[in-house]
Design a protein that fits this description.
By secondary structure, the protein is an alpha+beta fold. It has five domains: 111 residues, no CATH class; 104 residues, predicted glycosyltransferase like domains (Thrombin, subunit H); 170 residues, no CATH class; 107 residues, Beta Barrel (Thrombin, subunit H), CATH 2.40.10; 164 residues, no CATH class. It contains 22 helices and 32 strands. Helix 1 packs antiparallel against helix 2. The two termini are 60 Å apart.
């Protein structure tokens, strides 16, 4: 029965039913209802008054705001606003926690989340590291004995690894720093008897808000324990090994990071130890950026714009953001290119002249540069194949190149390009490698899943294995033991089972060329040497596929993200040029869905972090401003990004909240920079996200699907709400220098492209 027409009546009857007879009350309030309706309303009323045993724990919805609220044996965690509402509802339900109270509070919570609110605080995320597991562990519950001086305590494990343990105590007890631990139940299983002997563990952490959960690290090494726990984890990894919540958080942060890479302004460049440009991680907007440096090939002047000497000089002063100015002038016979850093132009008192000449040519560009060393610490590096390791080995430095609005002079200086001749860049038509975030498929033909024994012949030795997929031109093999080969290499192999199919086929000593090696030498990617009519395996597989194609299962032709590509993207995200915010939009308006940290910009991170360590975009941008920017981006005028300069002026002593101004005029800028205030200038770059154009290549996504379909659906729903992206840069130094130019422009110039 639909009770929505009677909702107001039921809410009125509940407090009255505790003092009056329910049936008499229902008859007096609803005299025209038939007996069946009265019976169902009476049953619903009794259901709403029944006791509820569900705990209200809203810490994930309101992080840092909830406080414990015990009530008749249940410890609820509610924010102050809902705590007050909870007490009001208790008065209506005669002081009892009932199903009606629980459902009413959840309905009001859903309505509250749809209402517009201030930009919410979120935790800072580090999207580059993935699931940071030092060793495999199981989400497994089994009795654990903690051996103390005054007796033993039985606890229950929450997860187990070879050297670590998380457990829950039966009561809130104070444990010593070191404690002996044993697993009596696990010790009864075959081959695990060693676990009955206690070993010493050290208490490493007690999660806040839950004193009953402890984390322990084993400090007493024992080979029998290592073997028993390792065997137990390996046997049960597929069933108990995935922590759905950890995978959910990791996959979501990785998707946020990939959305930033694909739609952001910045380009991530990688250099070798000598400062030579090796890789350019290029998104859709980056292609427009490289168009401005077209010479003979797209983007080949980028290496000239950032010569090795300039890169090594920036590497020596990593913590200083660099602002690079550049422009090009079309002469009668050739094009002249100029580029210089801001501090050098200031040192030679040529900043105004450089800006004036660039403005006169109409090609002035300004870039924000941030360089950091490459870190080979990501877990994906362990899974690189031979080609990936060869490609990534030379990389030493990673640089973010981000275009910014260039300053303009209301009255350009007299034309005089002669002083700028030392800043002329000589083009080197050396092509650079552009790494597209959307890797094209390397498959030239359909491959089919097919397993058959194979023998690899290596200098008189034979290594056995099995084929993973087949095609006319190549094979993918998995060997029983790893091999060491140098790429490229010529190998020979036998197909013993297929060779028995007929005398017409001689499938022995087949020549193949090794094109790649992965998984430590266990997986080989082979290409038929001189394939065609003269290659026995090519002829055999052509005939096999022609006759049995409907029986074989083709491997999917979807684009696969190679491990080296995922490593490049995560390396770029490890050290962002500035913190970024991913904003979602639902019926109630905009909200911050994710905050990506930039550890190399500590001052900016401090400015955007509240006293509880949460990210606060609302300190810079109001909801009204975001709404205005979103409306502008939705107009069909071709704009992809919008910028806003936010000036924060605080007292020299740092007391009080800073005064915030948006895009102040030049006179106001000069007043703020008069030396009486501490000024911070931030540039917020906002663009609209279109998720249907993005493809997320996240390894944790597949593991999350295996662990929890519900969490995967939640992730898809949250990503569907993504609407805006905002990246913040600290341009205080740039703004101070710009204000020293004569007659600066009235507002920031548009972004290039």
């Amino acid at each position: 029965m639909d009770f929505s027409p009677y909702k107001a009546l039921l809410n009125r009857m509940i407090p009255l039913s505790y003092q009056q007879d329910t049936e008499t009350l229902l008859t007096s309030l609803l005299p025209d209802a038939d007996s069946q309706t009265r019976y169902q309303l009476l049953a619903e009323l009794n259901r709403l008054k029944a006791p509820c045993l569900r705990v209200l724990d809203l810490r994930k919805l309101f992080p840092g705001q909830c406080r414990p609220m015990p009530h008749r044996g249940l410890n609820h965690m509610l924010p102050p606003r809902l705590e007050q509402r909870f007490m009001q509802l208790l008065g209506q339900y005669n002081g009892e926690y009932t199903r009606g109270l629980y459902e009413t509070l959840l309905a009001e919570l859903a309505a509250m989340r749809k209402q517009p609110a201030m930009l919410n605080a979120t935790p800072w995320h580090q999207p580059s590291f993935g699931t940071r597991r030092q060793e495999p562990r199981l989400q497994f519950v089994t009795p654990v004995h903690l051996h103390l001086d005054d007796g033993d305590i039985q606890a229950n494990s929450l997860d187990i690894s070879v050297n670590g343990l998380m457990a829950t105590l039966p009561s809130r007890l104070t444990l010593p720093e070191e404690v002996a631990v044993s697993f009596p139940e696990l010790a009864q299983q075959p081959g695990m008897g060693a676990l009955v002997e206690p070993k010493r563990y050290r208490l490493t952490a007690v999660p806040q808000g839950d004193k009953g959960r402890i984390q322990l690290r084993r400090i007493e090494q024992n080979g029998a324990w290592d073997q028993a726990l390792g065997q137990f984890i390996e046997q049960n990894q597929s069933r108990y090994g995935h922590d759905a919540q950890d995978l959910f958080d990791t996959a979501r942060a990785q998707c946020w990071g990939q959305a930033l890479l694909e739609t952001g302004l910045g380009q991530s460049l990688f250099f070798d130890e000598q400062g030579r440009l090796q890789e350019v991680l290029c998104n859709r907007f980056g292609k427009k950026l490289l168009e401005s440096w077209r010479h003979e090939r797209p983007g080949d002047l980028l290496a000239s714009l950032l010569p090795p000497a300039c890169v090594l000089d920036m590497a020596a002063r990593q913590h200083e953001p660099v602002f690079l100015y550049s422009f090009r002038v079309q002469g009668k016979k050739e094009t002249y290119y100029f580029a210089a850093e801001q501090h050098r132009l200031e040192k030679e008192n040529l900043l105004g002249q450089f800006v004036s000449e660039g403005q006169r040519a109409g090609t002035l560009q300004l870039y924000h540069l941030g360089i950091r060393p490459v870190l080979f610490t990501d877990q994906i590096a362990d899974n690189l194949d031979a080609l990936g390791r060869e490609r990534l080995a030379p990389l030493k430095w990673q640089l973010w190149l981000t275009p910014l609005p260039a300053p303009e002079l209301a009255t350009p200086l007299p034309a005089n390009a002669r002083p700028l001749l030392p800043f002329r860049v000589l083009p080197e038509p050396r092509p650079i490698r552009l790494v597209s975030l959307r890797q094209p498929s390397q498959r030239r033909e359909t491959r089919f899943r097919f397993e058959t024994p194979v023998e690899l012949l290596l200098e008189g030795a034979t290594v056995n294995g099995v084929t993973e997929d087949i095609s006319v031109e190549g094979l993918k093999l998995t060997l029983n033991q790893p091999v060491e080969l140098t790429l490229p290499a010529l190998v020979q192999l036998n197909l013993p089972e297929l060779n028995k199919l007929g005398r017409d086929w001689n499938l022995k000593k087949l020549p193949y060329r090794l094109v790649n090696l992965s998984e430590g030498g266990r997986v080989l990617h082979l290409h038929a040497q001189d394939q065609g009519k003269g290659h026995a395996a090519s002829r055999f597989f052509r005939a096999l596929l022609a006759q049995n194609q409907d029986k074989l299962r083709a491997r999917p032709e979807s684009v696969q993200q190679p491990a080296w590509m995922m490593w490049l993207t995560r390396q770029a995200l490890q050290q962002l040029a500035g913190p970024a915010f991913l904003l979602g939009r639902n019926d109630g308006g905009f909200y911050v869905q994710g905050s990506l940290a930039s550890p190399v910009r500590q001052r900016l991170m401090t400015l955007l972090t509240d006293d509880k360590g949460q990210a606060q975009l609302g300190r810079l941008i109001s909801r009204q401003l975001l709404q205005s920017i979103a409306t502008t981006l939705q107009r069909p005028n071709g704009k992809s990004h919008l910028v806003a300069e936010i000036w924060l002026a605080a007292d020299a002593a740092g007391s009080g909240s800073p005064q915030l101004q948006l895009n102040p005029d030049p006179a106001e800028q000069q007043r703020l920079l008069d030396g009486q205030r501490r000024v911070t200038v931030c540039l917020a770059v906002v663009n609209r996200l279109q998720l249907r154009q993005l493809d997320f290549y996240v390894p944790e996504w597949h593991r999350l699907t295996e662990a929890s379909l519900y969490k995967t659906q939640l992730l898809e729903q949250s990503l569907a709400e993504l609407a805006l992206q905002c990246q913040v840069f600290n341009i205080t130094d740039l703004a101070q220098r710009r204000c020293r130019l004569s007659a600066p422009a009235t507002g920031p110039a548009p972004l290039p492209g």
